[in-house]
Amino acid sequence: MVVEGVPADRTLLEVLREDLRLTATKEGCGEGDCGACTVVIAEETHGRLRYRAINSCIRLAHSVDGMAVWTAEDLAAPSGELHPSQEAMVRCHGSQCGFCTPGFVMSLFGLYQNTGGGQGITRERAQADLSGNLCRCTGYRPILDAAQQMGALPLPAGCEVDEAATVAALEHLRRSSGPLPDGRPYLRPDTLRSLLQLRATHPGAQVVAGCTDVGLWVTKQHRRFAQVLDVTGARELRRIERYPNHIAIGAAVSLADAFDALVAERPHLRSFSQRFAGLPVRNSGTLGGNVANGSPIGDSMPLLIALGASVVLMRWKKTRNGGQVAHRELRLEDLYTGYRTNVMRPDEILAWVKVPRPVPGELSRVYKLSKRFDDDISAVCLALNLEIADGIVRRASIGAGGVAAVPSRARRTEASLLGQPWNEDTVMAAMDTLRQEFRPISDMRASASYRQAVLVNLLRRFWLESRGATGINLENLQEVPA
Ligand SMILES: Cc1cc2nc3c(=O)[nH]c(=O)nc-3n(C[C@H](O)[C@H](O)[C@H](O)COP(=O)(O)OP(=O)(O)OC[C@H]3O[C@@H](n4cnc5c(N)ncnc54)[C@H](O)[C@@H]3O)c2cc1C
Ligand code: FES
Ligand code: FES
User: Fold this and answer.
1) What is the mean pLDDT of each run of 10 residues along the chain (482 residues)?
2) Nearest C-alpha to atom 3 of ligand 2 is from which residue?
3) pTM of the complete model
4) Based on the domain organization, do 464 and 353 belong to the same domain?
5) Domain around 380
6) What is the domain-level CATH number for residue 34?
7) Please, how many CA atoms are within 13 Å of residue 1, restricted to the half-sphere of its CB?
8) How many Å lie between the centroid of ligand 3 and the Cα of residue 60?
9) Nearest atom (ligand 2) to Cα of 27
10) Same-domain check for residues 299 and 409
11) Same domain, 322 and 434
């Protein structure tokens, strides 16, 4: 389908509901929180489709150009028979007012497609995949039941996705779209080189990646962008590269994929990774966007600081022969200069996040405290990464979020640990230093005194966990049968 004349900052939800009159997709919050607007997109990778549920309310419409998009209108068979993701909701009584239902059904559809027809879905997987959908009437048990039962239902004729035909149609679309003019409102170049050139020649264009921050500037602050430069088309920036001592994550890699790569290196990060927003936000949002946005309560930065990550900034440098790519690399904590300000030049792009691989003897943990367990940003975040040999702290690297104007490194606390025996006295002294190192503020998420107290207690929790204590962590609590 070709839709003409769409402004650069029009959302996918606006195009669906207002331009195409496809009103099955609902608008609840308009800020990526409730999931009522969930749709499923797919792109071809290695000849197969990969399905991702996303929030259409904060996604810019142009960004799905060249992708397949499914809405709740697309699921039932022409005969009217329901898709298993819909039928299971009916059978399990998963809907009351129905406002959230199209969004739940779309998340279920994405899950169905990514699990070979809803096979082997555990309760945990169902919860993770529905983490971006809120329901205020029904309660989650019947909806989770539907997720686990849809795989047992027959798929009516006409409901199946013809992957080969869809891949072929996308390929045809790609080939038939000719070269696009430079001055168009939505720029989504497919190479890093042209991205950097466009950044240099269009300094007024709003840079976006997954739009999970910028989308809210459009829907909530009513900001308008005449021209947008989208980094997510640049194929180099969509790669994760593994080297002997580090992994390099392209700035356009989704949060979901970036966290998968980090969890593969350090499995204990799994629970933290699933607490970053909900799945639809992680499917759209990028690691590069989180770092570039530089929110003091952004979740990936304390972790990345503790792991010793660096960032690579790139720009197009004019030379007598035309130009060339210039780059510089800096430690992540040195990127920030103040509240949401950083050292990036107006013509620079954040291109890579480089994360050192684990070393023997590394002891690392990250703790996030938020008002809600799922789909909520941190009030306080503390990430610790120590190397302990022969009972002595040989290296200490600590990142903190929610306690200063920028994501910060707790240098004084690190210094108080370095060279000391890893024992209770050292930890108590480090807790004192950490208490004095930051002066958090009070806001709607937490009071200053709560933040300070909890930050220090998280260091104590780290110490106790390093001694093998497990009962102090909610995740380890076992349900006692009635
Ligand atoms: C419901 C909801 C829940 C959320 N929960 C969390 C959470 O739990 N933890 C958390 O940390 N965040 C959370 N966020 C915030 C957001 O999802 C993240 O900050 C996300 O990583 C932003 O990435 P993006 O690709 O969407 O960035 P965008 O919104 O596209 O861009 C954000 C900023 O970064 C700039 N930018 C993006 N890419 C680049 C680049 N390559 N080079 C230079 N500049 C660039 C843009 O110009 C813009 O200023 C949440 C957001 C929503 C809507
Ligand atoms: S309308 Fe609530 S997430 Fe989009
Ligand atoms: S059925 Fe009403 S909000 Fe979910």
Assistant:
1) 90 98 97 97 90 98 96 97 98 96 98 97 96 94 98 97 94 77 86 96 96 98 97 97 98 98 96 93 98 95 98 95 94 96 96 96 93 84 96 97 95 98 97 96 91 96 91 68 63
2) 32
3) 0.95
4) yes
5) 237-470
6) 1.10.150.120
7) 12
8) 26
9) 1
10) yes
11) yes
